[in-house]
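Internal ticket #5521
Category: modeling
Description: The requester needs a full-assembly model to guide mutagenesis choices. All entity lines are attached below as received. Residue total reported by intake: 290.
Assigned to: D.W.
Attached entities:
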Amino acid sequence: MTAAQLAMANAGFVIGSYVVALGGIGLYTWRMLARARRVARDVPVEDRPWT
Amino acid sequence: MTPGPTSTTFTRWLGAAVLVGMVWLVVFGLVISPDDRVQGEGVRIMYVHVPSAWLAYLAFIVTGIASACYLIPRTRSLTWDRIAGASAEIGVLFMGITLVTGSMWGHLSWNTYWTWDSRLTTTAFLFITYIGYLAVRGLGGSLQQRAKRSAVIALIAVLEVPLVHFSVTLWRPLHQDESVAKGELENLMLFSLFVGIIAFTLLYVWLLLHRQRVMSMEDAVAERGLDAAIAERRSEVAR
């Protein structure tokens, strides 16, 4: 394997690790905010002291 | 865009800071930071792997502290229980990210995705323990029962955190020891790592605030459902 091929192979893992990390965080955040909107329909504003 | 039901002015500003931090992390981690003499490009994984591990530790320690606060009669409040639960859930997410990114880094550094090294094994054990903690939280019973039993488990589980952290000095693993504490990183690498840790810590606070509020709303719905069920049962008995 040449140095350029090795660098390309490494880049796949490096970029993949950022995709896993940021993608995982993004997916969790999206699901959590969707859940918040769904639950909020059944909760009056007085039960949300932060608002 | 309408603000979400769990957002406030503070969380919106914090969310903006998190986004800026994440962009900085990607720019520093993938572009500005230099390659390592030994690991080459592979070292760039460190800027997401180490902050993820740090955040998982932090999240589990917060879970332990909040659980202790729940168990102490003077400070007993379901808010502590919700903070504990939210923090554990975020910790599991980041521990999962740590394991996957570590496995990718391991493939580049050691030519294997997994080895039964002390650091890797204790980390996997910690991850599984907190999945168990979340499973226990999902068991039936009142909110107080949930809070009490999960608080006890959290206080036992948090003892694993120092074991994972010091596994690299207690045993002689394949995993590298504390490069940051030993000052083995170049300035720009250290700064990139610092950017990652700050960005992830801000993200943790943002996620914790939102998740804890979602749990608060879920608990309110569950309590109202229970009250309605009790009222219905009483009216049936009275008939």
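Resolution: model delivered.
Comment from assignee: Chain B has a mean pLDDT of 89.
Ticket closed.
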